[in-house]
Amino acid sequence: MMPFSAILLALLPCAMGEGQAGTLYCFACVTPNTYEVGMIAAMARLGVGLFECNGYDIISNTTADQLFVNYPDVAGMLKDKVHVINKNLYVPMVRGPAGHDSSSPQTDPNSPLYEGKKAIMKHLVNAPVFKDVWQSIFDIGAFGNFDYTCKLDVDAVIVPKRLSGMLSARPGDEEEYFLNAYHDMYGNFLHGPVELISKKGMTLDDH
Ligand SMILES: *[C@@H]1O[C@H](CO)[C@@H](O)[C@H](O)[C@H]1NC(C)=O
After folding, report:
1. Which residue among 20, 43, 101, 199 is least crowded, i.e. fewest CB within 10 A of its CB?
2. Does 52 fall in a domain?
3. Residue 146 is part of which domain span?
4. Domain contains 147
5. What is the CATH number of the domain that holds 13?
6. Which region is the signal sequence (predicted)?
7. Is there an atom of ligand 1 within 6 Å of 32 CB?
8. Distances in whole angstroms, Cα of residue 28 to Cα of each of 37, 85, 119, 130, 153
9. How many domains are contained in the chain?
10. Residue 173 — very low, low, confident or very high, per pLDDT cuts 50/70/90?
11. 129 lines ligand 1 (CB under 6 A)
């Protein structure tokens, strides 16, 4: 017969764990004076998408008051949630290196499927902006309270409960990064409207 304490321990994960695993910390970078502002304001009012995550923050290059100047209720609601990076958020679009994307032979001059220069992928040069955005997320540090950190494009609307449900079955204590799409419908590759990293992945010493 099992000792009483062992039975209790066996029951514990069910009793406590239900609905708790796979918690999500979400963030998005919002550019002022673009459609993103109205979109994030609408989601905030409805409490959907990013705002349904267990925790969330917003990064911009201006304060909540200025970002949501046309949505004073939202400005108030998100007063402490908008974190400012000192950066221009528009970035240029450039041509990617020819043939670089092995998943797209139409961009590879050495492939019989090559479609010429028009097929060459274009990239938004947004790494310098997102380097600062991620640094801000590390500085805020709230990600440490959740199982997964999720970067969202403003127009990537997720259903956090569904995603948490899927993630709750995962080991939970591993370094996990979920690979971006190879390319999107426009041919941009490594497009990451949703980027997901486990807590252990976030706390790697050598990131
Ligand atoms: C924020 O970024 C936008 C887009 O690059 C730029 O037009 C604007 O001047 C920036 N605002 C501040 C306060 O830096």
Report:
1. 20
2. yes
3. 5-91+126-206
4. yes
5. 3.90.550.50
6. 1-17
7. yes
8. 11, 13, 30, 10, 6
9. 1
10. confident
11. no
